[in-house]
Amino acid sequence: MAGKAVSKELIVEKAVELLDSHGLAAVTLRRLATELGVSAPTLYWHISGKRELLDGMAECLLRRGRTDAFDGPAEGQPWWEWLAEHARAMFETMISVRDAPQVIAGNRPTPESLTEIDVAIGALVEAGFEPGDAQQVFFVLGGYVGGMALEWQEEAAREREGVENPELHAAVTDAERYPHIAAAMRSGVHREPMETFLLGLDLLIRGLRSWHAERAS
């Protein structure tokens, strides 16, 4: 870092590096100061505290996965297909960095991102949504994507740790005690995490289309 002036952008970039390599618990202002080779008080010239840092990190992470889908539907593209593309891009971004879902959850936009958010809401307004409804659509999608991304990462961590519960496996195949669970297990419908995400996204988009049609009528 020698010779490189400290800035909010640099602080956020270093924080995301720490997040990806060591997890959210490692992202502290003290450690950031050490990594950047400055004193802790120096950071406060650029960032007010941990909450502002996390908001900046969330925005940085989302920008990494930014695609043309974030600008609005392509010409002739239905709004629901655009939303699905937007949600999948967000999901892939969240699962690509350790603990990213925890950082992005509950974040607040920075002033620099408001133009993009306004454009996205405007795309749904042009499709016939009320502005408030359009905003709620993105809140709902964000909650689903974040929750599924968190589940994905936690399940992956469990598999890496080799955590198994033989008693549970025996129980869920016990047709006498749990006939419906056992039948579900026998059905062979055991989707991969991405398949489960896409199934849920499809159900959510279908529900939004139906809700929109009802309100429009």
From TrEMBL:
Please name one Pfam family that this protein belongs to.
TetR_C_1
Determine if DNA-binding is one of this entry's keywords. yes
List each copy of the HTH tetR-type domain by range: 5-65
Keywords, sorted A to Z: DNA-binding, Repressor, Transcription, Transcription regulation
What protein is this chain from? Transcriptional regulator
Taxonomic source organism:
Saccharomonospora xinjiangensis XJ-54
Q: Which residues bind DNA?
A: 28-47
Q: Which GO terms describe its molecular function?
A: DNA-binding transcription factor activity; transcription cis-regulatory region binding
Q: Give the record's GO biological process terms.
A: negative regulation of DNA-templated transcription; response to antibiotic
Keyword match Transferase: no
